[in-house]
Amino acid sequence: MSKFDVVVIGSGPAGYVAAIRAAQLGMKVACIEKSRNKTGALGYGGTCLNVGCIPSKALLDSTHKFVEAAHDFDVHGISVKDLSIDVPTMIARKDKIVKQLTSGVGQLFKANGVTGIEGAGRVLASKQVEVTLPDGKIETLDAENIIIAAGSVPIDIPPAPVDQDVIVDSTGALEFLEVPKKLGVIGAGVIGLELSSVWARLGAEVIILEALDEFLPTVDAQISKEAKKIFTKKQGLDIRLGARVTATELVKGQVKVTYSDKNGEQKETFDKLIVSVGRRPQSENLISADCGVSIDQRGFVFVNEYCETEALGIYAIGDIVRGPMLAHKGSEEGVMVAERIAGKKTAMNYDCIPGVIYTHPEIAQVGQTEEQLKADGIEYKTGVFPFAASGRALAANDTDGMVKMIAHAETDRVLGCHIIGPSAADLVQQIVIAMEFGSSAEDIGMTVFGHPTLSEAVHEAALAVEGHAIHIANKKKRK
Ligand code: FAD
Ligand code: AMP
């Protein structure tokens, strides 16, 4: 029986990062991965690299270039004749990126001395891991420490069973070889909006059916209101709130969808339907009942703030535990756990995790929203700066959106930053760092920002907290 210091189950951004960091720290590490991707290669990189973050961004970047060429070049005096898109080429480009990155994880394993094992892992009592190999044989590994990083899968809903042909989940929605004329999307969450953007940009008529009455309820309300306006009025997405899908029927290669809203029962027929109603932890057949690890009713492995399960030496990280289902959250948990196993005192700041929706404009946030602060009775002040007043955004002809900074009313400490606008994902990162260092809005206001940059909008929003923004008329005027 092989013996390891650390056995990691799952090679997604949580698992492979944990494995590499543990190996860097001198431990003997194995990482088990059960899936193969569409090219037949071992699915190193998990959801994120194979069917999540990376392929979706590849398609978002391709289609954004198409939209720019179709609609935005003319103001620059650039004319494009006979613009067209070859969808199979776009998909092949995406696949090439996936292949490069997933094989890169294999190379990193080799470089760091991590033993990659193909098979399905299962945690047994006495810190053993059973691996079902592809040929059905079973091998057992002895582990000083076990890190469970088995990730998540799309949620299915009974009214819309996925066939990956007409009714697809997020994985199938990355594989269309032609643009659907009429596309239905169930769920207006992060993934639903990103996939809607991809296909709407190429000319699909997109209708999003969202059961909740509120649009993006976890985003600051001022930002989500702006987002809805841009997505519906400028980009033509038909977002129907309070619309709960109750049934679907396949009819002659199309899908008839029944949903209920405040006016009663409604019907729409689509060429394709994307089901993007969230993800659930992949914890079935993963942990034997006698090993002391608890799983909650929704399937999440129960852990404390250090990702320790109730069984000594067994940890769980990433989408399979509480917290936002984000690649970078899982990766940082992986680093934390590897370092704690090595005896370091590493901890993670869960209050400072950025979240991004990669639409155009992007929506990015860190910290608390106005609504959360109000609910918690915390006094705050805000500063807002619109990209329409940014010289760099004007030069780029990309002026939709704003930066909103929120600081504590008395201490001035930054409590949150919410951005809708060009490069919002990268812009918000500077506030993530500022918040990690306990920065005040004034600290950011006193920092020198390069000109002309989009980052100046972040600077101006910080100045606006006290009514000191230079390039807008401040509503509040303080000395
Ligand atoms: P996963 O990535 O799900 O990896 C788990 C791995 O474990 C899988 O490879 C699985 O095959 C393997 N596994 C499971 N069970 C076993 C077993 N018993 N034995 C062996 N192997 C096993 N997040 C972001 O931060 N930014 C984004 O832009 C973003 N975009 C996304 C877009 C889409 C379309 C989707 C679907 C997700 C997106 N996400 C994004 C979410 C992100 O992909 C996940 O948060 C992240 O992949 C979770 O990492 P993980 O390592 O916990 O799990
Ligand atoms: P997220 O978890 O961010 O991916 O968002 C998924 C969204 O799907 C949530 O906003 C849910 O309200 C929505 N949703 C779930 N079930 C249904 C349904 N049957 N019809 C319409 N929307 C749904």
Using only C-alpha atoms, the radius of gyration works out to: 24 Å
CATH architecture of the largest domain: 3-Layer(bba) Sandwich
Content of β-strand: 25-35%
CATH class of the largest domain: Alpha Beta
| Through-space gap between termini | 72 Å
Give the bound compounds.
flavin-adenine dinucleotide, adenosine monophosphate
Proportion in helices? 25-40%
CATH topology of the largest domain: FAD/NAD(P)-binding domain
Helix tally equals 12
Number of strands: 22
- Shape by Cα distribution: globular
CATH superfamily of the largest domain: FAD/NAD(P)-binding domain
Content-based structural category:
alpha/beta
Mean pLDDT: 97
Number of domains: 3
Largest sheet: 7 strands, mixed
Low-confidence stretches: none
Describe the protein in words.
The protein is an alpha/beta fold. It has 3 domains: about 1-155 and about 280-350, 3-Layer(bba) Sandwich (FAD/NAD(P)-binding domain), CATH 3.50.50; about 165-275, 3-Layer(bba) Sandwich (FAD/NAD(P)-binding domain); about 350-465, FAD/NAD-linked reductase, C-terminal dimerisation domain (Enolase-like, domain 1), CATH 3.30.390. The protein has helices at about 15-25, 45-50, 55-70, 85-110, 190-200, 220-235, 325-340, 370-375, 390-395, 425-435, 440-445, 455-465; strands spanning about 1-10, 30-35, 115-120, 120-125, 130, 140-150, 150-155, 165-170, 180-185, 205-210, 240, 245-250, 255-260, 265-270, 270-275, 280, 315, 355, 360-365, 380-385, 400-410, 415-420. The strands form 5 sheets. Strands 1, 2, 3, 4, 5, 6 and 17 form a 7-stranded mixed beta sheet that branches. Strands 8-15-9-10-11 form a 5-stranded parallel beta sheet. A 5-stranded antiparallel beta sheet has the order 18-19-22-21-20, sandwiched between helices. The longest helix has 26 residues, at about 85-110. The protein is globular. Flavin-adenine dinucleotide binds near residues 282 and 325. Adenosine monophosphate binds near residues 186, 188, 210 and 211.
